[in-house]
């Protein structure tokens, strides 16, 4: 559960990190209010949402396990790990 949340959050934050990196490469301090006006924040938010949604859709279509999950259990005194069967 945490993995899905973390991956989506990182995808959302990617445009913001790229913008901060761009400002640092331009030799500007990226944490001043003038660089974060409404249009920039709106564009970065939309880009982040598109990346997060795209990542979730890609994960939904590419990561599919076949069958039902059988949890770990003991058979004949041996531990059998959980698996999809």
Instruction: Compute the number of structural domains.
Output: 1
Structural class: mainly alpha
Strand-and-helix sequence, N→C? HHEEEE
Helical run tally: 2
Tell me how many strands there are.
Answer: 4
Q: Regions with pLDDT < 50 over 5+ consecutive residues?
A: none
Radius of gyration: 21 Å
| Terminus-to-terminus distance | 21 Å
Brief characterization of the structure:
With 85 residues, this protein is mainly α. Helix content is 58%, strand content 12%.
Task: Walk me through the topology.
Blueprint: H1 2-25, H2 38-62, E1 69-70, E2 73-75, E3 78-80, E4 83-84
Antiparallel strand pairs: 1-4, 2-3
Fold and architecture overview:
The protein is mainly alpha-helical and 85 residues long. The chain has one domain. It has two helices and four strands, in the order ααββββ. It has helices at residues 2-25, 38-62; strands at 69-70, 73-75, 78-80, 83-84. The strands form two sheets. The chain has a two-stranded antiparallel ribbon. The protein has a two-stranded antiparallel sheet with strand order 2-3. Helix 1 (2-25) packs antiparallel against helix 2 (38-62). The chain is elongated and about 70 Å long.
């Amino acid at each position: 559960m945490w993995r899905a949340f973390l991956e989506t959050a990182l995808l959302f934050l990617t445009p913001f990190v790229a913008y901060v990196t761009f400002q640092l490469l331009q030799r500007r301090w990226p944490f001043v209010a003038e660089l974060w006006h409404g249009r920039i924040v709106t564009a970065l938010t939309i880009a982040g949402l598109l990346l997060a949604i795209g990542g979730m859709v890609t994960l939904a279509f590419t990561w599919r396990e076949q069958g039902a999950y059988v949890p770990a259990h003991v058979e004949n005194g041996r531990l059998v790990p959980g698996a999809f069967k």
